[in-house]
Amino acid sequence: MLATVIGTVAGTLTTAAYLPQVVKVWRSRSAGDISLQMYILMVTGASLWVVYGLLLMQWPVIIANGVSLLFTAVILMFKLRYG
Length: 83
Fold this sequence. Notes:
83 residues
């Protein structure tokens, strides 16, 4: 129980950390200062974490990394479009 709570809070915080970047890039329509390589790695890593979570049926891992995948994919899309 405690481990699930800690994992859920950790996943929520690390996932929410991407939100300010999504909002900034969305508003400015500029992604020139964002590292393309970093976001390619983050999208790949988050995708693998989702697969890992699915294999183990660990919902905190699936949900946190699914949302992280969404946010990092949006940032990557903006980088490719506006970078």
